[in-house]
Amino acid sequence: MRIIKAKDYADMSRKAANIIAAQVILKPDCVLGLATGSTPIGTYKELIKGYENGDLDFSLVKTANLDEYRGLPKSNDQSYDYFMKDNLFNHININFENLNIPNGENPDAEAECARYEAVVKALGGQDLQLLGMGHNGHIGFNEPADEFVKETHCVDLQESTIQANKRFFEKVEDVPTQAYTMGINTIMQAKKILVIVSGADKAEIVKKAFFGPVTPQVPASILQMHPDVVVVVDEAAGSLI
Ligand code: F6R
Q1: How confident is the model at residue 174 (pLDDT cuts 50, 70, 90)?
Q2: Which of 16, 67, 147, 216 is the 20 to 30 Å CA partner of 153?
Q3: Which among 150, 207, 201 has a CA at the least distance from the CA of 39?
Q4: For the chain, which domains are there?
Q5: Among 9, 38, 39, 72, which is best to mutate for testing ligand 1, by the most ligand atoms less than 8 A from CB?
Q6: Are 240 and 206 spatial neighbours (Cβ–Cβ below 8 Å)?
Q7: pLDDT score recorded for residue 160
Q8: Which residue is closest in CA terms to ligand 1's atom 8?
């Protein structure tokens, strides 16, 4: 595991975007695993700049997103489908047929999770998986638990995650309570993993996840076992390491 300390959020975003850009330049038809949340927004802005200035061509890139709320229509501006279009896909020359996100509109959790797991496998896995990390160490929506769940599955979101996400909804009752998420194996099969973490409020979990014991109680700690992980933290998130 390589840990890169960036100065601040902007610096973290540029460094992360440069790593993704290198992947796209080296393998134009690569599979990018992508994340939502506030952390990658700056990274996506930098990738858009790279496309606009002619450095990056996404026409052959395929993507697989980590997760999606169950029961939220794609047209809802809080769906991850909407987020990805709004923050990245609508602004680059990606082929919309090459985009994959769990379908939150499919109420049949078992069928949808099996479908999505097969989609990621059929892509040959992710060449590069981008991850953010929750305050409790969750990756995707793999929440702290007694064991790692391997494949794409439906999860009940923890109260702390619902509380953290409520800022995006009018009231807490509107926050979805379940999500479809890649499992730990689905994430770990990526050839390369890039984790980005920003802010003093994540300093404690950064220390626990990357320097503490590997345990399903801190899902991101499993990344210590992956052969090719780069973590880019800003100064605040990296202040305890
Ligand atoms: C998003 C995702 C989540 C977030 C995590 C951090 O697709 O899977 O695991 O990466 O909740 O979110 P932010 O970046 O908003 O702090």
Answers
A1: confident
A2: 16
A3: 201
A4: 2-234 (3.40.50.1360)
A5: 39
A6: yes
A7: 78
A8: 140
